[in-house]
From TrEMBL:
Domain (ThuA-like): residue spans on this chain: 3-211
InterPro entries with a match to the protein in the record: Class_I_gatase-like, ThuA-like
Protein name: ThuA-like domain-containing protein
PANTHER family: GALACTOSE-BINDING DOMAIN-LIKE SUPERFAMILY PROTEIN (PTHR40469:SF2), SECRETED GLYCOSYL HYDROLASE (PTHR40469)
């Protein structure tokens, strides 16, 4: 049985506890044994090197250098990392080690909750196969991203809420390698109920399975 660890905490506005519960259920349905932790100290545990998958759900907050380095080393050795929205890529803003691992960092969501479109860029990728571009109402994340990411979906900013970014095409979903490990991220899912949007649930589930070490 593959083992996964979900670590949730930080800013409560992203419903980290509810998201952790939902994702735990999805992973258990896929045959994973799931460990839940609520402090960043879990990332320093040597035992995480034996996991198949780690899911951070920890918006903002801080991570100790030793915790970040152990997490990075675990993924570099083959443990998968997967997550969504601010729980993964607006976590630990002062840790460049963590940002290098994740492949991106949130910097803005102009207009806050707005309507926007998610465009699939690789519809034949196994994570996205069968899905179509879709409209969504939530925070449209503007991010600093790693050019090494393999981008699976994007969104285009209209400039309505920040005129200077009109026409900017921004990655929404990506996957990447980090050493021997696989990393998957989706910027969708500001609140827990959004994870039940069929397209979001499908790509998240597939993305976690792709990232997980066999």
């Amino acid at each position: 049985m593959r083992k996964a660890m979900i670590v949730w905490g930080g800013w409560p506005g992203h419903d980290p506890d509810l998201c952790a519960s939902m994702i735990r259920g999805w992973l258990k349905a896929e045959g994973f044994e799931v460990r839940i932790e609520t402090t960043t100290a879990a990332f320093a545990d040597p035992a995480i090197h034996d996991l198949s998958l780690i899911i951070p759900i920890y918006t903002m907050s801080k991570i100790e250098k030793a915790e970040a380095l152990n997490l990075c080393a675990a993924v570099r050795s083959g443990v998968g990392l997967a997550g969504h929205h601010g729980g993964m890529c607006d976590a630990f803003r002062d840790s460049v080690d963590y940002q290098f691992l994740c492949g991106g960092q949130w910097v803005a969501h102009p207009g806050n909750i707005i309507d926007y479109k998610v465009d699939l860029t690789k519809p034949d990728d196994p994570i996205m196969k069968g899905l179509k571009s879709f409209e969504h109402r939530s925070e449209q994340y503007y991010m600093h991203v790693d050019p090494a990411n393999e981008v699976l979906a994007t969104t285009t900013f209209t400039g309505e809420h920040a005129s200077w970014i009109e026409g900017v095409v921004m990655p929404v979903v990506w996957k990447k390698r980090y050493g021997e490990g696989r990393v998957f991220y989706s910027s969708l899912g500001h609140r827990a109920y959004e994870l039940d949007v069929p397209e979001i649930r499908t790509l998240m589930t597939r993305g976690m399975l792709w990232a997980a070490r066999e």
